[in-house]
Specification:
About 35% of the residues lie in helices and about 15% in strands. With about 500 residues, the chain is α+β, with helices and mostly antiparallel strands. The strands form six sheets. Strands 10, 11, 12, 13 and 14 form a five-stranded antiparallel beta sheet that branches. The chain has a three-stranded antiparallel beta sheet with strand order 5-6-7, with helices on one face. The protein is globular. It folds into two domains: about 5-185 and about 430-490, FAD/NAD(P)-binding domain, CATH 3.50.50; about 280-425, Succinate dehydrogenase/fumarate reductase flavoprotein, catalytic domain (Flavocytochrome C3, Chain A, domain 1), CATH 3.90.700. The longest helix has 18 residues, at about 75-90. The chain binds flavin-adenine dinucleotide. The site of flavin-adenine dinucleotide has 41 residues, from α1, β5 and α15. Flavin-adenine dinucleotide (FAD) binds near residues 34 and 39.
């Protein structure tokens, strides 16, 4: 397995569980990749945990109904729209004070959210296996919280989060399981080139230790590429989407440079959707990082303003649409406004594990006892922000946002102290990559499986389409990592 993030570890654990001897190489000095940076939200339709979530607003339900009325792009798409209609009929004849959700809704939100450019069978697998895979992860040591929320760009309250340190929980649990199963993990070992035999089968990897020592790894069964995306490779980003501009920061680890995509290309792998690169409207203005702010607990609990102190978008929208809106604001700059309710209540750290006092002390975020004082701290007209704030809270109370059509609301933002977190656009996810089939096998340019080669995680393409829903990537990497590991173990 090349790459020690969530997908690589899931693949290695699954391969070992299925009887293979697994070796995992990781080019940096630590496991984790982007997965360890993740906030943790993992989408799954989960009737038991969603039981306590109140019904969605009428507007949100209208967006669900709208998904049943789209022009079908295929008979399979029509079948899911019909399924959603019958799910809605069943819901409407029962207790409508509770949240509606269904497999059909998650599938259609994912498919529609990616502008129908994702492959429907892959989306079906992702959604149908998300809950069972979360149970597999739990059996392997991940502890899930009981609460459910909506991750920004996730569109619906079905995000599960692990109990401690967000994405780090997944890595810790998988690493322990991998060790228990005897997976050999080699750190500071960079995969450079796939080795093929005379028939074209992939039979190993040429790699290099960080001190320059060459390493050859021979694979009896298969190689799994799990090197993540290419969000931190500016040249590659520019090549596939020049509109991004070279200066945008990224939420990604600097190690996420598309190595696996380049290696796979050399053995004729097909790449799909490379031009689909996702930015988020929630990056640190200096580094592009995703940590260091208040509100990550769920989109329900914040609103976002521009430098003039007014909202400019529905904060629960698609990530591409939200980023496009932010790019049109003065200096592409914004502030996320939250209160103490939820995230910081009774804790010293935010969802990312950042110490809140430190963030305030360093001037990374701003805190004040009143909205007017907060406005002064961030250089916004106090009356304007006060009006924005009061309007927003009235939308929460009424469950509808006449300005931007936001649909998801939590509690009103009224528990002092209040926080303002500066946020700018940042490159977050690369939806394109190596094309795979449902077994996780890498496909060549003619659509045939490349013997001995599997891929999983953000290094693959064709699943999310043009825009990935928040909370779907962690599902992708675990569902398809597990699948690739299993099939690689059985490969002969
Ligand atoms: C800040 C942040 C927050 C996120 N939050 C969420 C979230 O809450 N929910 C969600 O669904 N998604 C989230 N995402 C997206 C999600 O975390 C990623 O898509 C996912 O973790 C990718 O997993 P992966 O295993 O494919 O790759 P990674 O976790 O990035 O791992 C790839 C690994 O491969 C290694 N590697 C690379 N090249 C080589 C090489 N040549 N040889 C050996 N090793 C190599 C890297 O060093 C890295 O360790 C977030 C992403 C970021 C950046």
């Amino acid at each position: 397995v090349i790459g020690g993030g969530g997908a690589g570890l899931a693949a290695a654990v699954s391969a070992a569980e299925n009887g293979a001897t697994a070796i995992l190489i990781e080019k940096t000095a630590a496991l984790g990749g982007n997965t360890v940076r993740a906030g943790g939200p993992y989408n799954a339709v989960d009737p038991q945990r969603q039981e306590g979530v109140p019904a969605a607003s009428d507007l949100a339900m209208e967006s669900v109904i709208a998904l049943t009325e789209k022009e079908a792009v295929s008979p399979e798409h029509q079948a899911w729209m019909d399924q959603l209609k019958s799910d809605l009929d069943a819901y409407n004849s029962g207790d409508t004070t509770k949240l509606f959700d269904s497999i059909a809704l998650h599938i259609l939100q994912t498919y529609d959210g990616g502008d129908y450019a994702g492959q429907l069978p892959m989306i079906e697998k992702l959604v149908e296996e998300s809950l069972p895979t979360s149970e597999w992860m739990a059996a392997n040591g991940v502890e899930w919280k009981e609460e459910i929320s909506t991750v920004p760009g996730g569109l619906w309250p079905r995000a599960h989060t692990p109990i401690n340190a967000a994405g780090g929980d997944f890595i810790k649990a998988s690493e322990a399981k991998a060790n228990e199963l005897g997976v050999e993990i080699i750190l500071e070992c960079k995969g450079n080139e796939l080795i093929t035999d005379e028939t074209g089968k992939v039979v190993g990897v040429k790699a290099e230790m960080s001190d320059g020592t060459p390493v050859t790894l021979n694979a009896k069964k298969a190689v799994i590429i799990a090197t993540g995306g290419f969000g931190a490779n500016k040249e590659m980003r520019q090549e596939y989407d020049p509109s991004l501009g070279a200066n945008l920061g990224t939420t990604n680890s600097p190690a996420i440079t598309g190595d696996g995509i380049i290696m796979a290309e050399d053995v004729n792998a097909n790449l799909v959707g490379m031009e689909y690169i996702q930015s988020l409207p929630l990056g640190d203005p200096e580094t592009g990082a995703l940590n260091g702010w208040m509100g990550a607990i769920g989109v329900e609990y914040y609103y976002q303003i521009n430098k003039e102190g007014v909202r400019f978008m529905a904060e629960d929208g698609r990530r591409d649409t939200m980023t496009a809106s932010l790019l049109q604001q003065t200096d592409a700059m914004s502030y996320v406004i939250t209160d103490t309710n939820r995230e910081s209540e009774g804790t010293e750290v935010n969802l990312w594990g950042d110490n809140i006092e430190e963030l305030v002390k360093n001037g990374t975020i701003y805190r004040a006892d009143t909205i007017e004082e907060l406005a002064e701290l961030i250089g916004v007209d106090a009356e304007t922000l006060k009006k924005t704030h009061e309007d927003f809270n009235s939308y929460v109370a009424g469950g509808s946002d006449p300005e931007f059509g936001r649909k998801l609301f939590g509690d009103p933002i009224e528990t002092a102290p209040f926080y303002a977190s500066p946020r700018m656009p940042t490159v977050h996810h690369t939806m394109g990559g190596i094309e795979i089939n449902l077994k996780g096998q890498a496909l060549d340019k003619d659509g045939n499986a490349i013997p001995g080669l599997y891929a999983a995680g953000e290094v693959t393409g064709g699943i999310h389409g043009k825009n990935r829903l928040g909370g779907n990537a962690l599902v992708d990497i675990h569902v398809f990592g597990r699948e690739a590991g299993k099939n690689a173990a059985l490969d002969n």
